[in-house]
Amino acid sequence: MSVSRPNYAPHPICLAAAQCTRWLQRCLPNLACLLCGEPSRTPVCSYCESDSAFYDKDALPINLLLRPAVASHIRHAHYRYLYACGNYQWPFTTLVHTLKFKRKPVAATILADWFITHVLRHRDRPAPQCILPVPLHFRRLQQRLYNQSAEIAYPIGRNMAVPVIESWARRCGKGAQHTRNRHERLLAARDAFVLSNACLDSVLEKGAAGQCVAIVDDVLTTGVTVDVLAAKLRQRYPWLAIEVWVMAVTPAPGQRRLSLEKV
Ligand SMILES: [Zn+2]
Questions:
Q1: Residues with Cβ within 5 Å of ion ligand 1?
Q2: Confidence of residue 261 (pLDDT cuts 50, 70, 90)
Q3: Which residue did the predictor score with more confidence, 154 or 145?
Q4: Are strands 169-171 and 193-195 parallel, antiparallel or unpaired?
Q5: Alpha carbon 230 to chain centroid, angstroms
Q6: Residue 218 and residue 88: Cα distance in Å, rounded?
Q7: Distance CA 57, CA 76 (A)
Q8: Are the C-beta atoms of residues 243 and 215 closer than 8 Å to each other?
């Protein structure tokens, strides 16, 4: 499986330190559940996993864009498939926060495993040609030392034997999207991302039918970021089908109290 790293990565010594921390986290025995803190040999205990609310896949389409309660508040002009584990509420809020702000990439492994088990095993489409983590701004990458979307994408890519390409695009805009409202996000996102020169040229066959890629992110709030990225991809590769894979979707304000079965 080929791996393509961005050329604006942090200093190699910082990356080596982060790799070492990751290796230690994998090798040392797990003592407590990341979610409840109770003793557990696995990063998330079986009680917390069974209490987690995943989207219903039996009664409703697994493609969330076919569910009006989700699609109505998500921008999706340039992609046709959206898959996620569940609403952005506990435990996804805790796991994403742990991944992004507590330097515990093990949370990414849990999210990726859940996505494989609860979503990909029920998805009835061919595997994509490649998996594309949403780029992180290089300043944030240098602070965090890893891109949380890439941390989620790699275990999924290994499971599916599909290449993960981090160098397909870069983020050059300023500031974090989660602090902006919908309109501000759209204006900022249009100029915030640039496709790389090579982009996906090495993995896509020009004009070939049935080719598909999956953009991976941790949380989808308004859909503006992934829609802008999908638009740029479609501009360069018009024949391409684009899927969006996220671990959780923020429900519309009026839907936050609805049960997942109704979503
Ligand atoms: Zn637990």
A1: 33, 35-36, 45, 48
A2: very low
A3: 154
A4: antiparallel
A5: 14
A6: 10
A7: 21
A8: yes
Expressed in angstroms and rounded, the spacing between residue 129 Cα and the centre of ligand 1 is 36
- Secondary structure E strands in the chain: 3-4, 81-83, 86-87, 130-133, 164-165, 169-171, 193-195, 212-220, 241-249
Contacts of 181 by beta carbon, 8 Å cutoff, 6+ apart? none
- pTM score of the predicted model: 0.86
Dig out the tokens for 182 from the structure: 């919908």
| Interval between CA 49 and ligand 1 midpoint (Å) | 7
Report residue 30's pLDDT band, with 50, 70 and 90 as the boundaries: confident
Contacts of 174 (CB under 8 A, 6+ apart): 137
Asked if residue 148 lies in contact with residue 100, where contact means CB atoms within 8 angstroms, the answer is yes
Q: Is the pLDDT of residue 190 over 50?
A: yes
CA of 228 to the centre of ligand 1 (A): 37
CA of 260 to the centre of ligand 1 (A): 21
Please give the distance, rounded to the nearest whole angstrom, from the Cα atom of residue 90 to the centre of ligand 1.
12
pLDDT digits (tens, 9 = 90+) for 191-244: 889 999 999 999 998 888 889 999 999 999 999 999 999 999 999 999 999 999
Residue reference for tokens 């397909």: 168
- Estimate to the nearest angstrom the gap between the alpha carbon of 155 and the chain centroid: 12
